[in-house]
Amino acid sequence: MADATLSRENAVALSIFASYFIIIVSLFYLIISSIRKNAVSQKDRSGVWVWSGLAVASFGFTWYWMFIFMIWSFHDHERKVSTEALKHTILERMTSWLTNTDLFKQACAIVCSSPLNWWWSEQLCLFTAGAFTIFLYIHRERVPHTWAYMLLGQVLAISVAWCLFNLALVLVPWHPGQERTQKQLPLSLTVPVLLSFLTISLSPYTTELSFLPNLLIMHALLIVPLVPPFSRIRSSPLSPKTTSFYTLVALLALLLRIRTLSKTLYFLQVTSSPFFSWRHPRDAIVILWNAPGVLFGAALGMLHSHPAQASIGWDIIWTSIGWLCWCLCGDRNPDAQWSTTETVRNLFPTIVASVGVTAPMEIGHQLREKSSVKEEAPLKEE
């Protein structure tokens, strides 16, 4: 009877663990098969190589550290069990580990454990809840299964999902004059996005009991606008302009980044950083001069402080690189020339303020430029 019970426990624990990887493989299959089905041949294959290469690189970096985290978690669990338990089979030890460890909660708790950890993690949350969600929604008619990209980003890596989605956009048929601009965004999108920003703002203040529900609510909110019937809604009463909402999202992200930055600098001061000792008003100049170096030095030190932190940290880095590549090639027609103007303009703000701030600001800026060109075209013809 004991063996039968143990077998059931093994099956449940291992099936839950295996189902996580099955979901990832299934999403990959759905996305890749969809891209291949809708792809058209390209004269210039540079965009295909760029986004494919970035997707592979970001997957390799983030998941190398994720597997290292799983190994760390397993050994951390075994340090807490009795010596007798270590004599069990590897299957029984894995079952004990998976049964008594919440990997998702454990990883998220680590990457939000201090203001400096949150300085990293918040960047990814803001980009995902803001620019990425809106971007997926706007292009849902060009690329099918946008919800799959969001879900893949949540369970795997946002950087991988971002690169794959841009790969799909590069390969999708492009017909001049058939492009439909989403001038307004329905409440079925804007409300979940704003609520997800609320959950992000509350994350640093959650308790051990409220942390995981708050995080799961944020993830669920971002899936809702991308699944039918919500994804079929083009407009609704009180729908804001797309460009205006992008600007609002950028401003909200900027406010949250300023709050996080101030808390991080205070955290570094409390941890006795010599650069933040205040004894004379003139020390303010020294503090302002040294603060960027101290902040980014501490952030780089935090990057590899733990495997879970390294995984999300590299996800943020590759998302930022992918964003700058989007600025380079953008969502243009296949015959357009690549330009470095947007990349140079966004490089420094992305490093300082984060991709969560610059992405919605830049995309909104480009949409305003496109709309102004379309409005001027009929006037020139007249």
TrEMBL record:
Coiled coil: none annotated. The chain crosses the membrane at residues 12-32, 48-72, 124-140, 146-173, 185-205, 211-231, 243-260. It comes from the Eukaryota. Keywords: Membrane, Transmembrane, Transmembrane helix. The keyword Endoplasmic reticulum does not apply. This is Unplaced genomic scaffold SPHSTscaffold_38, whole genome shotgun sequence.
